[in-house]
Description:
The chain is α/β, with parallel strands linked by helices. The chain folds into two domains: 6-131 and 147-212, Alpha-Beta Complex (Spore Coat Polysaccharide Biosynthesis Protein SpsA, Chain A), CATH 3.90.550; 223-303, no CATH class. 40% of the residues lie in helices and 18% in strands. It has eleven helices and 13 strands. The chain has helices at 6-20, 37-44, 58-67, 90-97, 169-174, 187-197, 223-240, 243-266, 270-285, 287-295, 310-315; strands at residues 27-31, 49-53, 74-78, 82-84, 102-111, 126-129, 134-136, 139-140, 143-144, 155-157, 164-168, 201-212, 305-306. Strands 3, 4, 5, 10, 11 and 12 form a six-stranded mixed sheet that branches. A three-stranded mixed sheet has the order 7-6-13, with no helix packed on it. Helix 6 (187-197) runs parallel beside helix 7 and helix 7 (223-240) crosses helix 10 (287-295). The chain is globular. The mean pLDDT is 96.
Amino acid sequence: MNYNGKKFLRKFLPLVIERSAGDAEIWVADNNSLDGSVEVLQEEFPEVKLIENKFNEGFATGYNLALRQIEADYYVLLNSDIEVGENWIPPVIELMESDEQIAVCQPKILDYFNNERFEYAGAAGGFIDKYGYPFCRGRVFQSLETDRGQYDEPVEVFWATGASMFVKADLYHKYGGLDDDFFAHMEEIDFCWRLKNEGYKIMCCPASKVYHVGGGTLPKQSSRKTYLNFRNNFALLYKNLPANRLLKTFVARLFLDGIAGLKFLLQGGFQDFVAVIEAHIYFYKNFRRLKQKRKKLKQNKVSKMYQKNIAFEHYLFGKKKFTDLDPGAFS
Length: 331
């Protein structure tokens, strides 16, 4: 997927082509870029198949529109700001082929600027706590670990990053792909949760490595990003939580989001404070629509959810590494 990423295409696409040869067909879906990306693709990468979306309707819709036009056994959703490692595809496919219940898998995601450190968007596989706060093996909130091989075993996780996501194509279409209403951020968590509610597994395969720049489309510090994260997090919780968990989770989140908003305000982030309020307003205004979505989905108790409050664990008790967390709390 590309949006105004001409510099990333020139930098990273040659390696994607070289290191995917014989393993994958390369397509670029362009979301109506205005920076000359399409011309670069046509003139400098004629061997790459191009899909031009007429409008920029976000990460989720952009992929949905593009993947309807591609026939394959597997899709690999890959951000334009990623450098792929050597032999990055075969280990993932081998793992996914070993178990028909594996629907989605991600590689190990490392920081492009510091290859020894995990990258925020995925690290060595994603998890969420019982209140919907996401974190990763190798990343708890803003605390990023150095990769010392501590997460090199393939494991089942709760979610896989959309920055580099392998997914079985038939399951992508059968279960509706990414939610168009999310636009961007957390759409992959929602998708993985829906698959888990259907009995499928999400995996991380650290034998495959990619290196992510991050923040290529939206800056890492952005009130727009804050809004999308809070808005979409509320939506994925409401769509996927079992009925007996809904009320207590949302009551707790009202309190926790109030604390988050106050923290933004005290740190001078007035626009982020407003973004949290706007995210809540969106949820209430669109409640009926979300209720109709929920009715069409299964909601089950699923594995790999952390049954404690990761925010309290991190900010109050100083737990900065995944290995600091209680392994018995993942159920």
